[in-house]
Amino acid sequence: MGLSLKDDKLIVPAYDANGNLTTVQMIGEDGKKMFLKGAQVRGSSFTLTSSKGHDDSTPVYLAEGLATGVSVWLALNKLAEVHVCSSAGNILSVAASLQRKYPARDFIICADNDRFTSGNSGLTHALEAATSDGGKVTLPNFPDGGSGTAFYDLHLASGLGEVRRQLGTLVVAPYPPEPGLYRLALE
Questions:
Q1: pLDDT tens column, 20-75
Q2: Radius of gyration of the chain (CA)
Q3: Nearest to 78 by CA among 52, 44, 116, 104
Q4: In 3D, which of 99, 180, 84 has the Cα closest to residue 136?
Q5: Would you say residue 186 has pLDDT above 70?
Q6: Contact (Cβ atoms closer than 8 angstroms) between residue 90 and residue 41
Q7: Are 41 and 35 a contacting pair, CB within 8 Å?
Q8: Up-side HSE of residue 69: CA atoms within 13 Å toward CB?
Q9: Nearest-CA neighbor of 110 among 129, 86, 138?
Q10: Residue 111's beta-bridge partner residues?
Q11: Are 170 and 137 in contact (CB under 8 A)?
């Protein structure tokens, strides 16, 4: 089951690491998001992937939301495997379940840069997941005065080329992060 529309809502299926459908997320025209009541969300994700398949040498990307996941996937020429976690709080669970399934693959978490909120939850959850599961974190950076927080916002503001460039910029920091403590490192 892929993306679909029903009653003016985008239907996003979510699967566990074994490929079992566990829930669906419904996204309204107003951006409001809901899951099926009582369904398993933790550890479930929607996957954007290439028909060419993947091997242990290709990284797995994790994105907080669908728009970010699509922007990352497009910036990587639709060749990457991108798991949409549906929330910052679910990144750790998805990363852990996929790490068990793909122990030899690298994980890159495409964090939202929630720099306007106390504690920057997007970066905090991404760093927690990376620390627990040996992943790496990247997050979008915006020019001074830029209001975006996600790679989707960067895509709209600066194009896919800039998203692609910034996906190669990794965050290096201890967990838990403290304000002003993280730095960016090019690999």
A1: 999 999 999 998 998 888 888 899 999 998 877 777 788 899 999 999 999 999 99
A2: 16
A3: 52
A4: 99
A5: no
A6: yes
A7: yes
A8: 22
A9: 138
A10: none
A11: yes
